[in-house]
Amino acid sequence: MARVPVQFTLNGEERAEFIESGTTLLHALRDTMGDTSPKGGCQQGTCGACSVIVDGELRLSCLTLAQTCEGAAIETTAGLAAGGVLHPLQRAIMDGFAAQCGFCTPGMIMAAKALLDHTPNPTREDVIEAISGNVCRCTGYEPIIAAVLAAARSNSQNAG
Ligand code: FES
Ligand code: FES
User: For 129-158, what is each residue's pLDDT tens digit?
Assistant: First the structure.
């Protein structure tokens, strides 16, 4: 298969690599860029484990061709902790015991981040809707919802 160049910003860092034509963003990130934080679950758009943010919008990386992200700004969970300090969502997930096996967690966090980036003070219903595309087999969702709301509160306290 032909190899093609792709160039984008990954968590603020310029990246330029050659990938096989038709490679999904999920596999480009994991296999070529060395970022294994997006998880390959169903790989057909139904579990949300592969969720990333592309140019500010939540995207399923398993359904996104890497070539279509040329020049984009891509965010993954791997880039959230700045200088070793956890992002408020990571901190709230940890403090609230909202991860068990952890497989869904990176995708959940990106779905929640996309919500909070656009809606800093979400309602419980906003959170439920935002993570509705993300499957968790372990937690029953309540600890995750509570953690996202706690992160939003902590963000607004820090901003105030
Ligand atoms: S791996 Fe992409 S939605 Fe499941
Ligand atoms: S913590 Fe196991 S799938 Fe969510």
Answer: 999 999 999 999 999 999 999 999 998 777
Domain range spanning residue 22? 3-79
How do residues 70-121 score in pLDDT, each as one tens digit? Answer: 999 999 999 999 888 999 999 999 999 999 999 999 999 999 999 999 999 9
| 149 Cβ below 6 A of ligand 2 | no
Three-state DSSP class for residue 91: helix
CATH number at residue 11: 3.10.20.30
Q: How many Å apart are CA 107 and CA 99, to the nearest integer?
A: 12
Q: Whose CA is nearest to atom 3 of ligand 2?
A: 136
Phi and psi (nearest 5°) for 6? -140, 140
For the CA of 108, the nearest ligand:
2
Claim to verify: residue 155 and residue 93 sit in the same structural domain: yes
Q: Give the atom of ligand 1 at the shortest distance from the alpha carbon of 47.
A: 4
Q: Which atom of ligand 1 is nearest to the CA of 43?
A: 1
Count structural domains, the chain.
Answer: 2
